[in-house]
Design brief:
The complex is a heterodimer.
Chain A: H1 6-11, H2 18-28, H3 33-36, E1 43-44, H4 72-97, H5 111-119, E2 126-128, H6 134-139, H7 144-152, H8 161-164, H9 175-189, E3 196-201, H10 208-219, E4 224-230, E5 233-234, E6 237-238, H11 251-255, E7 258-263, H12 267-285, E8 288-293, H13 312-319, H14 323-333, H15 339-361, H16 370-373, H17 381-405
Parallel strand pairs in A: 1-7, 2-3, 3-4, 4-8, 7-8
Antiparallel strand pairs in A: 5-6
Chain B: H1 15-28, E1 34-37, H2 38-52, E2 56-60, H3 76-80, E3 85-87, H4 92-104, E4 108-112, H5 123-130, H6 133-136, E5 146-151, H7 166-170, E6 176-178, H8 183-195, E7 200-205, E8 212-215, H9 217-225, E9 238-241, E10 246-250, H10 254-267, E11 272-276, E12 279-281, H11 285-295, E13 298-305, H12 310-322, E14 331-335, H13 346-349, H14 353-361
Parallel strand pairs in B: 2-3, 2-4, 4-5, 5-7, 6-7, 10-11, 10-13, 13-14
Antiparallel strand pairs in B: 1-8, 6-12, 9-11
Helix pairs in contact in B: 2-8, 4-5, 8-9, 10-14, 11-12
The chains are: A alpha/beta, B alpha/beta.
Chain lengths: 406, 367
């Protein structure tokens, strides 16, 4: 893409002024040296663990990188999504225990990341979630029952990705980052100002597609915000066994993109950082990498036993940093969240839970012939033959049963 | 497919304008049959597809400035611009995954895998996403992607440059698998693959790239653009040679070998029919069944290692459909179940005229 020769600058780096060299390197990628080195500045945190607003000087921002606070009404709306998201997680886990759903990977404890990822996007923007990002999918406005279709076991996906501009939740790790790159590339070729948020977890950063996606996005200068929720575990394997990089955000440096770290349990910081990243991507300064530090409070899924690989003390420690409690304390202190608002939000969360219960308790009789309908745009003669064979088999079964009951 | 009528936001010339310029240039040239290579037919099909729709984009490794290691995309970047035909970083999964995303957002990507065995890093994206997206979304998302793969042996290539990998793809539900064997089909079938709303793995036999047929590309284009029935190859095998004694079933690089075997058999007084499948998925069971039931004897010819392969599937289907018409067991002439050999050994591996004739001799003829 570019015509500059990186080798020339690198070869003489030892002899020239280090700051000048970094500045030149960063400018080559179209970003400032401050952005280029952001991961080394530490994590952005605007609310402390008790829900107190930190002074600007304490927020971990680099010089020239102050983050404007979202407006009070935006924060209240985001808090509502946070409370609803928590309720969604807990309701779905209960539905799994009751046998109404096959499996549910809960994002309990990561709801601030979920909400920020969905709320930072505009109408023409896309989001590519993982299987743990159902709350983000619902916050983006997708019907809860459509979202849960995958986990209920009716079909592999329940919503139209193009209609909602939300990629399908699927289980292979990290593959969706390349789909995000493709969506962004198509939009760029057509001159559209679409931004794509591509989500993955800490374990996913070890996959080859993580590298390929970040590199493609950087080489083609695409408007993608890679959003890594570092929840410390990939099923049972801790972060230390995935990567010995100083942080996952540091990986951005190698691709020539801006990277940033943020407290993943601080909704305000997440909103500020993600909004800035989306704005920069839209202005042509993408791609960017944002790493959020958070914690998976529950097991990987209902099939997992987290006590086999982590200590309760660690979980307790993270419980004290709960994103919902922190935000509630802050908003109450600011007078934005009064009892009436709290009651209204609790009601919205219960309404969502009840919608999930009703939707997922409804019996759905899947049509076996659907097996063949969507493999291709038109079934091949081979599939039509197999479809007829299954129909015949079912007809024979029905006839046998009728005879047996006679 | 949409064709815009003016230049877009980036100032790129629209398909309609490009097409008018093309047509003018072409009508000036003499439209007479002339020798055309397989490679030229593919190049022309790509150019025509780029002209027909602004949604078509080509990308892969070395396909831009260089025109591809086999020059199949030669001149396309210069003619259509870097936004239509471009090089990517060297990463096959990245190429396939980006194609999936572009297809989700309305484009029709045509990607090149440099060699058959170099496509394997892309298999997760192809098998788990490109093949399944339409089904997973109950038809909401289409994947109009063409994955072009130069494949198979016969060129003295080194390790990892000669695999017959079609069986992997044919085994994966949701992928269409095309394998043209003639120059005319190379043109028609690539146009058809690009216009398909399903993902197509398009196998280009490397040993045929520089083979020639005398034909009129303008007439082929016209026929295709007019939607002529003769331009449709998907699921339509052709009887490449009529015969009465036995039937050879082949596709891609094996068709020319089968044709040569039929020619040699004729000199010995044996009449062999040759069926060219053209597409493996979907498969034309009807033409295969008719051709085998007619002669009562069949040999399946394919370069792929035979075990659990497209060739095995063909034999199974023939015995299911033609059992009572068969005078002898259906035989296979395929590659052996060994890794593709080094250049100096490939002649012992590849199906040859002699090996096909030996198999035909073994079809239990009455004394």
């Amino acid at each position: 893409m570019g015509t500059e020769q990186p080798g020339a600058a690198a070869a003489s780096a030892g002899e020239v002024d280090r700051a000048a060299y970094l500045d030149e390197t960063a400018r080559k990628f179209g970003i400032s040296v401050e952005d280029y080195l952001l991961p080394t500045h530490g994590s952005i945190r605007i609310l402390d663990e008790t829900g107190r607003l930190r002074d600007v000087g304490e927020q971990g921002t680099a010089p020239g990188h102050e983050y404007p606070m979202p407006e009070a009404d935006e924060l209240l709306a985001a808090y509502e999504a946070l409370v609803v998201g928590r309720r969604v997680n807990d309701q779905n886990s209960a539905l799994v225990r009751q046998g109404r759903m096959a499996v549910y990977p809960s994002s309990h404890g990561q709801e601030a990341c979920q909400v920020a990822a969905a709320l930072c996007l505009g109408d023409n923007d896309w989001m590519f979630p993982t299987y743990r990002d159902s709350v983000a999918v619902m916050t983006k406005g997708i019907d809860p029952v459509e979202t849960m279709t995958l986990f209920r076991g009716d079909w592999h996906g329940g919503y139209d990705p193009a209609k909602y501009k939300v990629g399908i939740q699927s289980t292979p790790l990290t593959t969706q980052l390349l789909h995000a790159v493709g969506v962004a590339h198509a939009a760029k070729l057509r001159g559209e100002d679409t931004v794509v948020v591509a989500m993955c977890g800490d374990g996913a950063t070890s996959e080859g597609d993580f590298h390929e996606a970040l590199n493609f996005a950087a080489v083609f200068k695409l408007p993608v915000v890679f959003f890594v929720q570092n929840n410390q575990y990939a099923i049972s394997v801790p972060l230390a066994q995935q990567s010995v990089a100083p942080s996952l955000a540091h990986k951005a440096v190698g691709y020539g993109m801006a990277g940033e770290r943020v407290d993943g349990n601080d909704l305000i910081a997440l909103m500020a950082v993600m909004r800035r990243a989306v704005r920069l991507a839209r202005e042509g300064h993408g791609p960017l990498l944002v790493e959020a530090h958070t914690y998976r409070m529950q097991a990987h899924t209902n099939a997992d036993d987290a006590t086999r690989y982590r200590q309760d003390a660690e979980v307790q420690e993270w419980m004290a940093k709960d994103p919902v409690t922190r935000m509630r304390t802050y908003l109450q202190g600011e007078g934005v969240l009064d009892e009436a608002a709290e009651a209204r939000i609790a009601e919205a969360a219960e309404a969502m839970a009840s919608q999930l219960r009703d939707g997922l308790n409804a019996e759905v009789e899947p049509d076996p012939e659907d097996l063949f309908r969507y493999v291709f745009t038109e079934p091949t003669s081979q599939l039509a033959e197999q479809q007829a064979r299954l129909a015949d088999e079912l007809a024979r079964d029905a006839a046998t049963q009728t005879e047996a009951t006679r | 497919m949409t064709v815009t009528t003016s230049s877009d936001a980036n100032g790129n010339v629209s398909a309609a304008t490009a097409r008018a310029t093309e047509r003018a240039a072409e009508s000036a040239a003499a439209a007479a049959p002339q020798p055309v290579t397989f490679a030229k037919a593919l190049n022309t099909a790509l150019a025509d597809a780029l002209t027909a729709s602004d949604d078509v984009v080509l990308f892969g490794e070395d396909i831009g400035t260089l025109g591809g290691v086999f020059r199949i995309t030669d001149g396309l970047t210069a003619r259509f611009g870097e936004h239509r035909c471009f090089d990517t970083p060297l990463a096959e999964s990245g190429i396939a995954g980006m194609a999936a995303g572009m297809a989700m957002n309305g484009m029709r990507p045509v990607v090149e895998m440099q060699f058959d065995a170099f496509a394997y890093p892309a298999l997760e994206q192809i098998f788990s996403h490109i093949a399944k997206m339409h089904n997973r979304t109950r038809g909401a998302l289409k994947m109009p992607i063409v994955i072009r793969i130069p494949y198979a042996g016969g060129i003295g290539g080194v390790e990892h440059h000669c695999d017959s990998s079609e069986s992997y793809y044919a085994h994966t539900p949701g992928l269409k698998v095309y394998a043209p064997a003639t120059v005319a089909d190379a043109y028609r079938m690539l146009r058809e693959a690009i216009d398909s709303d399903d993902p197509v793995v398009f196998f280009e036999p490397k040993k045929l790239y520089w083979s020639k047929e005398t034909l009129d590309l303008d007439a082929l284009r016209q026929q295709y653009d007019d939607g002529a029935d003769a331009s449709r190859s998907e699921g339509r095998a052709v009887v490449a040679r009529q015969g009465t004694d036995a039937t050879l079933i082949a596709y891609g690089p094996s068709v020319s070998t089968a044709m040569a075997a039929a020619e040699a058999a004729a000199e010995e007084g044996r009449s062999l029919e040759v069926v060219d499948l053209r597409t493996i998925v979907p498969l034309d069971d009807q033409t295969i069944t008719e051709a085998v039931c007619k002669t009562g004897r069949a040999v399946v010819v394919a370069e792929t290692p035979g075990f659990a392969s497209v060739a095995s599937e063909l034999v199974a289907r023939i015995q299911e459909r033609c059992f009572h018409s068969l005078a002898a067991p259906v035989l296979r002439v395929t590659g052996f179940d060994v890794p593709f050999p080094a250049p100096k050994l490939e002649e012992y591996f590849l199906p040859s005229v002699d090996r096909i004739l030996d198999a035909v001799d073994d079809l239990q003829w009455e004394a």
